[in-house]
Amino acid sequence: MFDLIVKGGIAVTPNGTESADIGIRSGRIAAIGSLDAGQAEQAIDAKGLHVLPGVIDTQVHFREPGMEHKEDLSTGTAAAALGGVVAIFDMPNTKPSTTTPEALKEKLKRAQGRAWVDHAFYLGASPDNASQLGQWESLPGCAGVKVFMGSSTGSLLVDDKQVLLQVARTGKRRMAVHAEDEARLKERRHLVDGDKVSPALHPLWRDEETARLATAHLLEIARSANRLVHVLHVTTAQEMELLAQYRDIASVEVTPQHLTLAAPECYERLGTYAQMNPPIREARHREALWQAVRQGLVDCLGSDHAPHTREEKDKPYPQSPSGMPGVQTLVPLMLDHVNAGRLSLERFSDLTSAGPARLFGLAAKGRIALGYDADLTLVDLKAKKTITNQWIASRCGWTPFDGMQVTGWPTATLVRGSVVMFEGQLQGLPSGQPLRFSGC
Ligand code: DOR
User: Fold this and answer.
1) Cα of 261 from ligand 1 centre, angstroms
2) Mean pLDDT across the chain, nearest whole number?
3) Bridge partners of 10?
4) Among 229, 221, 227, 117, which residue's Cα sits nearest to residue 178?
């Protein structure tokens, strides 16, 4: 007997993409193959659907505590579930920043009974905690250490080379890094000073050299400290070229936004709503990111879900904050790219399930395999839908993709065997749990 059978779908499994029923017992995958629906208390008819290992978003900013007017753990994880996402890694630039074990514990406590999906929280590196991060990075529910090499939203910053080296030397887990060079950002800030500055200048201020410099420096530090690093939201052709030479030590994330939007068109159409760090750049960089996806250089996707209210975004550039929501639109956008032939469904699944599990050592997640957590994202590859602001559950209430027609849509989200979203509606009560990491 199973608790639930997902019946008649086409499953993306380690064995290939094949017709298979999936039997679930006690939150785990208990059978894969041809199963009789009569053997289960509940069945989901997945005929015509593809069954993916649950999609994991390894970069979101859910704003709690301190900025709940933008988002909180309840609304952010609801948006995740509605978008077909089963687990998230939340970033530390909240108020206060997550820089101590107490702050981490507080987030875990807040998530209990309110999070719709599984979750882990990053500890933010700062000059004050640089020597202690090694002891703290393996605490329960911790995704590891996050470093901001350049200033973005919030006050977290490690721009001193010695401190960065110290942070790299004190821990063992893969260290996630926002790579923009702070000194160059300061030098070039005058380019966006003054009245009536256009947000189209954002990628000029935070130019490709700003990103390349920081990534090159980070890779040297990683090599000398012998520390694994994860370069978040890579945006340039130059960085991809460099990263290809450091495959033993560095992993690579790109965002769906950087794969979808391009300058200058996005700034003309969306203004400050297209402003994020690092910036959306010209189409030639977008093409370099796609090439890196096709050639296996990109390890995972993160949405960098960074909600700000419309009121905040409507401030004149550059007072407008950087960031856009993305956790709910990751799956539909990427399925649209699958349908357009830009990547295969299997590659998408590797980037969002097996990839994150492999990089971060997620215990028993990221594959449709016997004994693994029954995390599943059911998708209708043929569904034609329009992404709208009305659909967005994030407290910010908008998406840069409002009005975009896509082919491919998530129809159900299962977290450890519980159906948390079915046909666009949240189901049951929030029961997300802290993620577990092998070896921690
Ligand atoms: O655009 C961004 N927004 N980039 C970041 O690094 C931070 C994020 C935020 O938290 O708003």
Assistant:
1) 17
2) 97
3) 19, 50
4) 229
- Structural domains present in the chain: 2-51+369-383+404-426 (2.30.40.10), 55-360 (3.20.20.140)
Active site residue 304: yes
Task: Tell how strand 229-231 and strand 175-178 pair up.
Answer: parallel
Q: Are 65 and 103 in contact (CB under 8 A)?
A: no
Give Cα separations from 95 to 15, 72, 103, 410 (angstroms).
45, 12, 10, 32
110 C-alpha to ligand 1 centroid (Å): 22
Catalytic hit among 57, 118, 159, 304 = 304
pLDDT tens figures, 328-351: 999 999 999 999 999 999 999 999
Rounded to the nearest whole angstrom, what is the distance from the C-alpha of residue 309 to the centroid of ligand 1? Answer: 13
- The response to whether residue 61 sits with its C-beta less than 6 Å from ligand 1 reads yes
Is 345 a pocket residue for ligand 1 (Cβ < 6 Å)?
Answer: no
What's the pLDDT tens digit per position in 109-150? 999 999 999 999 999 999 999 999 999 999 999 999 999 999
Q: Cα–Cα distance between 307 and 326 in angstroms, integer?
A: 8
pTM score, whole prediction:
0.98
Query: Is the Cβ atom of 150 under 6 angstroms away from ligand 1?
Result: no
Q: Mind spelling out the 3-state secondary structure of the chain?
A: CEEEEEECCEEEECCEEEECEEEEECCEEEEEECCCHHHEEEEEECCCCEEEECEEEEEECCCCCCCCCCCCHHHHHHHHHHCCEEEEEECCCCCCCCCCHHHHHHHHHHHCCCCCCEEEEEEECCCCCCCCHHHHCCCCCEEEEEEECCCCCCCCCCCCHHHHHHHHHHCCCCEEEECCCHHHHHHHHHHHCCCCCCHHHHHHHCCHHHHHHHHHHHHHHHHHHCCCEEECCCCCHHHHHHHCCCCCCEEEEECHHHHHCCECHHHHHHHHHHCCCCCCCEHHHHHHHHHHHHCCCCCEECCCECCCCHHHHCCCCCCCCCCECCCCCHHHHHHHHHHCCCCCHHHHHHHHHHHHHHHHCECCCCCCCCCCECCEEEEEEEEEEECCHHHCCCCCCCCCCCCCEEEEEEEEEEECCEEEEECCEECCCCCCCECCECCC
For residues 321 and 308, the answer to whether their CB atoms sit within 8 Å is yes
